[in-house]
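Hello forum,

I keep getting stuck at the same step: I have a sequence, I want structure tokens, and every attempt I make locally crashes halfway through. Rather than fight my setup again tonight, could one of you with a working pipeline run this one for me? It's a single chain of 264 residues.
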Amino acid sequence: MAHRTGDRTSASRRSLYAYERSLARLGFDPVAGADEAGRGACAGPLVVGAVVLPSGRAGVVPELADSKLLTPAARERVYAQVVARALAWTAVVIPASDVDRFGVHKANLEGMRRAVAGLSARPGYVLTDGFPVAGIGAPGLAVWKGDRVAACVAAASVVAKVTRDRLMVAMHEEFPAYGFAVHKGYVTRDHQAALAEHGPCAQHRRSFVNVRAEMGGRSRSLVPGVDDCDLVGDLVDPADLGYEVRDNGRMRNVRLVATAVEVP
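Reply #2:
Ran it on my machine without issues. Output:
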């Protein structure tokens, strides 16, 4: 007997929530998911999201899926549903300078700890995408491709991705030469060509090989009136970039650091 498309969709949706429901039956609720966006980008911040969805029908988010599988318009719709339905959610923004200072993996781990710690609803269990996170303050499990198989991780991936994309679009106004609004800081042909022409700006990650290769012994700000190697922008409030990072309606204490560093 053939299965209707609706039947397959319902089965897939039930499967997406299976981790949370199984853990809840074992007494580990509420369950939080954590995921990041921007790990592979050579410019811009790393953003980590954490989400606790309510149990039952209230926690079922229409169209929810791994953020990478959604169109930009669908991600915005899902994001709005997640933040409206979540028991708690956070978005932690880690500036490019800290990614350079600590390395992508360590910055990611710390971002996940901060994101989970910042949740207003203390989780009984935490699901993370791909790798374990020690010191997270609750029992946890690393789930392979967690953003595709666990609803709370998928929700966290959407929060992280939409937050980061909005910040990168806003950064385009400050650094229009690089096309951040289009490629969001990832290495594309156009981005690499702009990097080769202009050198790195304050938001490029100097620990990335392709960025260091284009530095030529200097760092460039591309901000009018600011010379190479000067401090650019000091601390940039996300609100100044046209976006607010919130946890259940409260501003989170996250900042972007815009600096240009002198290279020996």
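The chain has ten helices and nine strands. If your local run keeps crashing, start a new thread with the error log.
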